[in-house]
C-alpha cells in the first residue's frame, strides 16, 4: 500500500502538464472532425483526452476527489513497472512543475518521453506501435482474458487520435526553450500515455472493478481527467 500511495503522489505532480497537453481547444477541434469515423471505444478515448480545459468549469483542476490510487480500484495493463516511472519522474519533475505555469502551445511531457525512452519505444517524434503493443499485451498475460481486446482497441483509438491532431503535436515539438536548461520533449509520448491510462481504466470490466464510493468517484473523475 505504501508503494501505491507513493506512486499516486508522483502521478499528481505531472497531471497539470498532461492536462495542458491533452485538453487544448485545438485538440478538441481535431478530434471532433474525426469522430464520424471512429467506433464507440475510440470516441470515448478521444473525449477523455479533449474535454478538460476547454471549459471554464474544469473538473480536473482540483485533482482526484479521493486519496485513492486507481490500481486499488482496477489493476489495468501497464507499459512499464512503477520503478521505471519513478526514475523518470524524479529526473524531470522539476522542469515539469516550472512548465505548469507557462501559457501558449502545450509543451511535451518529458516524464512521459523518458518512460518511452526507457523501453526504446520513442525515436524522432515517433512511437513504435508494434513494440508498445507487445509490452502492453505482455502485461495482460496473467490478467483476465477480456483485457486483450480492450487493450488492442485502446491502442488503436489512441493512435488514431494522435494522428488526427498531428499538427498540434508537431507545433509543440518545435517550441524553443523558454528558460535556461529547459529540455523540449515531443508531445507524442504524453499524448499516447495519457490516452491509454484513461481508456484502460474507463474500460475496466465490471467484474474486475472494486465497487465502493471512493472507486466510483475516481472512475467518474478519470472519465474526464487524464493520468498516466
UniProtKB/TrEMBL annotation:
MF GO annotations: odorant binding
Residues spanning the membrane: none
InterPro entries noted in UniProt: OBP47-like_dom, Odorant-binding_protein, PBP_GOBP_sf
Protein keywords: Disulfide bond, Olfaction, Secreted, Sensory transduction, Transport
Subcellular location as annotated: Secreted
Pfam families for this protein: OBP47_like
Keyword Secreted belongs to the record: yes
Residues covered by the OBP47-like domain: 77-221
Gene Ontology BP terms: sensory perception of smell
GO cellular component: extracellular region
Family named by the database record: Belongs to the PBP/GOBP family.
Name assigned to this protein: OBP47-like domain-containing protein
Organism: Anopheles coluzzii
